[in-house]
Amino acid sequence: MKILFTGANGFLGKNLISDLNKNHTVFTLGLNDSDFQCDLSKEIPNLDQLNIDVVFHAAGKAHSIPKTDLEIKKFYEVNVDGTKNLCESLEKINLPKIFIFISTVAVYGREEGTQITEEHPINGKTPYAESKWIAEDFLQNWCKRNNVKLIILRPSLIAGKNPPGNLGDMISAINQGRYLNINHGKARKSVFFVKDFIFIIENAFKMNAGIYNVCDSKHPSFKELSLIIAKQLGKSNAFSIPLLPAKLIAKCGDFLGNKALINTLKLSKIINSLTFSNEKIKKELGWEPSDVINNFKI
């Protein structure tokens, strides 16, 4: 296949492009070191009569909490305007057959719950969640109008080499001996193994257009994740502290700001399970996603 991969310099690009290039022709679009260098949030790229089968749109803004109006605006510029600019450029070349959009389970707006499906209402209120949902809505209309198959993937945490976000923070804390499991690390989270995106791309022609949660079927606990990370880093296993002391420490953290190891918001995410159903994509492809615990190499 001929694939246009946006966000080539990001986490997904660094983990996927070299493998995709073994069997396919990949054209990259990114801020630098790409076939097409462009800031999608500000520019409409010139794709120079490119002829592609699949767009894998991974360019986006995530993994930060905005503190100013300017930082809030950036989410919409990158995730919404960037998507619109990409689509405008695609209209000037031979349109792709398939458009794969990397969205997020954050659009559901849930802090806890189990086996949440794609039918769950959209309740995400953060700039990240809201901007991704607006981009989804735009793409649904654009793809229908242009007869392009749209596959929206909503990943949970993504495990791969040098992950960003909460998983990256967890690795850093364990490496520095600052990580503690709370309440025995029993809470479970949905996680997706990054290399499985390749299987989805290569089998996208078999899929129906639609929205799909993507995660493994094990939904590992914090304890399971911390054990495998500590083992790979050659570190001691994390201690566990009871819930009550953790709540007191988190309360203190609320007053310390960014210097705090934990606050009540972080504590809530650590002690509450949040898992998503992957049954839809499993049935669609007759496929079992990789078990993160057995495949994750930091």
TrEMBL record:
Domain NAD-dependent epimerase/dehydratase: from-to ranges: 3-214
Pfam families the UniProt entry points to: Epimerase
Alphabetized SUPFAM superfamilies for the sequence: NAD(P)-binding Rossmann-fold domains
Protein name (database record): UDP-galactose-4-epimerase
Naturally occurring in which organism (per UniProt): Cloacibacterium normanense
